[in-house]
UniProtKB/TrEMBL annotation:
It catalyses: L-glutamyl-tRNA(Gln) + L-glutamine + ATP + H2O = L-glutaminyl-tRNA(Gln) + L-glutamate + ADP + phosphate + H(+). This is Glutamyl-tRNA(Gln) amidotransferase subunit A. It holds the Pfam family Amidase. The active site is at 78 (charge relay system), 153 (charge relay system), 177 (acyl-ester intermediate). GO terms for biological process: translation. Keywords: ATP-binding, Ligase, Nucleotide-binding, Protein biosynthesis, Transferase. Belongs to the amidase family. GatA subfamily. The keyword Nucleotide-binding applies. The keyword Nucleotide-binding applies. It comes from Thermoanaerobacterium aotearoense SCUT27. GO terms for cellular component: glutamyl-tRNA(Gln) amidotransferase complex. Residues 24-466 form the Amidase domain. Allows the formation of correctly charged Gln-tRNA(Gln) through the transamidation of misacylated Glu-tRNA(Gln) in organisms which lack glutaminyl-tRNA synthetase. The reaction takes place in the presence of glutamine and ATP through an activated gamma-phospho-Glu-tRNA(Gln).
Length: 489
């Protein structure tokens, strides 16, 4: 086995025993990036020189006896998280030349543990999309089939893990952007409870929904990365300080006898692929064989979640993106007539189609004549969805179902049809609306492509999700690997 094929915990064993050095590990990944990146296009920028320097520092930490779980481990960061002195573009022309003067808190966390950043990942512009086709720079390809999308918006993060370009990556999830690409690329992705991970330095999309989380090769690694990035941050006022910082590795037990697992009858809706449905039904059987108790629950407002999400998220985006006015930072127009024209031209040139669509939608929903009809109504639906979950969680410990209604779709298939694209998030969006934690892990193949199982838990109960996911992962034993087929360029 090559070093770049290993998980974080396997690499950590070798580093601890001093069988390999951090520089050797990093070189193996940099070589892999050179080999597969021309096919996959997962990265907006590669940070090879920076990575070698960091790997040397990691080797010093190891020599000094300061090794921890992430020392010397190669990571890719989604390009909407600020990295000091390293370009952070949000896959937008608006920020094409933006070099942040500071690190996001999560980046700072990883740096202090000695993780080695090898690149920044492609995404849909400002994290708006489900396929990475909205990136202003390139479309990432799915390593399982290069003619298909990797999902989005953290498509580069998920594809880079699936293609072994890094041992793990960070993504952000506003309506499914960690879980859906993880599902389509056959890797593990987790959106933590809102408030568990600091958003400081994450370029804001929809502030009441955004959350950063890990994308990894297995559930153990997910727990390891979660340990590294959770915790109170005074720089983010929505970061919670009253939850115990658990060691998430303690939850990695294969015993789930008596665990109460809910599935919602609303999951089996129109638009769910037959193959995905079969895999989910098999997963439920596996949980039953493991001694869990399966209970039917109802999430009766689920059908309204997408509509509510696209109003709330767009409303917040229209406000958050107002700062890109061509004056303070970001793209500035060269030719304009007066101040208003300068704003207009800068924004027209800097933003792509989908971002403009959301700004218009959000501005409309917030405008005085329509505020009650749209924005306030969406907030009411948000409350009803939260209550759906609260009720369900009186009866069950976790809820399982599909992450995405389909496997990876073809590049170009949905990009001209925003509503079809938005449907990719039908199972993930309600979880953000309720602020709950959710994880996606592979549970089988359909049409030769990975299917993701979503496990949703109570607020701050990431531990139970990890327990269920770990037990399932062992029982399911998903070993298929991407084939990089198709996609002649
Ligand atoms: N696909 C969803 C959207 O376009 C979710 C994006 C995300 O989670 N960042 O809004």
């Amino acid at each position: 086995m090559e070093l770049h094929e290993l998980t974080i915990h396997e690499l950590n064993d070798l580093l601890k025993k001093k069988e390999v050095s951090a520089v050797e590990v990093t070189n193996s990944y940099l070589k892999r990036i050179n080999e597969v990146e021309p096919k996959v296009d997962a990265l907006i920028c590669e940070t090879a020189d920076f990575a070698i320097k960091k790997a040397e520092e990691a080797d010093k930490m190891i020599r000094d006896g300061n090794i921890n779980d992430l020392t010397g481990i190669p990571v890719v960061i989604k390009d909407n998280m600020c990295t000091e002195n390293i370009r952070t573009t949000c896959a937008s022309k608006m920020l094409e030349d933006f070099i942040p003067p500071y690190n996001a808190t999560v980046v700072e966390n990883l740096n202090s543990l000695g993780a080695v950043m090898v690149g920044k990942a492609n995404l849909d512009e400002f994290a708006m999309g489900s396929s990475t086709e909205n990136s202003a720079f390139k479309t990432t390809k799915n390593p399982w089939d290069l003619e298909r999308v990797p999902g989005g918006s953290s498509g580069g993060s998920a594809a880079s893990v699936a293609a072994d370009e890094c041992a793990f990556s960070l993504g952000s999830d506003t309506g499914g952007s960690i879980r859906q690409p993880a599902s389509l690329c056959g890797v593990v992705g987790m959106k933590p409870t809102y408030g568990l991970v600091s958003r400081y330095g994450l370029v804001a999309f929809a502030s009441s929904l955004d959350q950063i989380g890990p994308i990894t090769k297995d559930v153990t690694d997910c727990a390891i990365v979660l340990n590294a990035i959770t915790g109170h941050d005074p720089k983010d006022s929505t970061s919670v300080d009253n939850v115990r910082k658990s060691d998430y590795k303690e939850f990695l037990k294969d015993e789930i006898k008596g665990m109460k697992i809910g599935y919602a009858k609303e999951f089996f809706r129109q638009g769910l692929d037959e193959g995905v449905k079969k895999s989910i039904e098999n997963a439920l059987k596996t949980f039953e064989e493991l001694g869990a108790e399966i209970r039917e629950i109802s999430l009766k407002y689920m059908d309204y979640a997408l509509a509510a999400y696209y109003i709330v998220a767009s409303a917040e985006a229209s406000s958050n993106l107002a700062r890109y006015d061509g004056i303070r930072y970001g793209h500035a127009a060269e030719k304009y007539e007066d101040l208003i024209d300068m704003y207009m031209v800068s924004r027209s040139e800097g933003f792509g189609k989908e971002v403009k669509r959301r700004i218009m939608l959000g501005t409309y929903a917030l405008s005085s004549g329509y505020y009650d009809a749209y924005y306030n109504k969406a907030l009411k639906v948000r409350t009803l969805i939260k209550q759906d979950y609260e009720k369900a969680f009186q009866d069950v410990d976790v809820i399982v179902g599909p992450t995405s209604p389909t496997v990876a779709f073809k590049i170009g298939e949905r990009v001209e049809d925003p509503l079809a694209m938005y449907l990719a998030d039908v199972y993930t969006v309600p979880v953000n609306i309720a602020g709950l934690p959710g994880l996606s892990l592979p549970c089988g193949l359909s049409e030769g492509l990975p299917v993701g199982l979503q496990i949703v838990g109570k607020h701050f109960d990431e531990g139970t999700i990890l327990n269920a996911a770990y037990a399932f992962e062992k029982a399911c034993n998903f070993t298929a690997k991407p084939s990089f087929k198709g996609g002649a360029k």
